[in-house]
Amino acid sequence: MPALKVLAIAEKELKEYVLKPGSVSWGIIFPLVFTLAFAVRFGDVDHLAPGLLAISVLFGTTSFVSSSVIFERRLRTFERLLVAPVSYLTVVLAKVLVGSIFGIFVGLVSLLFLRLFMVYPIWNVPLLIVFLILSAMAFSALGLYVSLAVENPINAMTWLNLIRLPMMFTSGAIVSLLLFPHWFIAVGLITPMTYAVEGLRFAMLHYYDVVNPLYSLLVLLLLAMAFIYLSTAKLENLY
């Protein structure tokens, strides 16, 4: 069954890349340092928490997925996986699944540290988990597509940084979009990370700035599906 093949590949990826001391330690240290940096600088962690959580998930998923793809493409071990009796979609889904799991892990660690500095309780924990999962899926699929789209895999991280760093400021993760002119809000609405920030903000603090949480949920789901489709098509063209 396709689902069992996805899980089999995902299990292999988890053992090879995720369940390693380096990956686990990075998944703990990165959100810890990131949270402490903003907590010391701004103090008001509650209103920053959704944005910091989204940033942690973004960097966790995309960094992990791109690193594994870069490693496999350079060593030409990716081709070995593709000659197995599995479809390209199966390979993509497995990669996205493992990247999402790692991103969720980083997000939960970040959330644990954020709770130490937050004053208000989380408004809706189940909804927070839903948005955390959808954000991880969308970002993981994005990272996979970028890693496959670049001709030289070494340049994948450079292109990812060109995408990730601007999104930190155009998504309202650090400063509310309502403080900017209308044209900047329009830029925010075409930024994928905006919908993760808005959804997490509503789940954690029971308010949103510019995007209704239902729209955020639908857009994140559509983004995940779109990048999975694009990654599958790109993989077919490459091999």
Notable features of this structure?
239 residues; mainly alpha; globular
Report what the structure shows:
The chain is mainly alpha-helical. It has helices at residues 2-18, 21-42, 45-75, 78-82, 88-115, 125-149, 156-170, 182-189, 192-205, 213-238. The chain is globular. The protein has one domain (2-234). The mean pLDDT is 85. The two termini are 23 Å apart. Helices cover 80% and strands 0% of the residues.
Mean pLDDT: 85
Rg over CA atoms, rounded to whole Å, is 18 Å
Count of DSSP E strands? 0
Separation, N- and C-terminal Cα atoms: 23 Å
Helix/strand order, N-terminal first: HHHHHHHHHH
Number of domains: 1
Largest sheet: none
Specify the structural class.
mainly alpha
Number of helices: 10
| Poorly predicted sequence stretches spanning 5 or more consecutive residues | none
Binned strand content: under 5%
Shape: globular
Residues in helices, as a percent range: over 70%
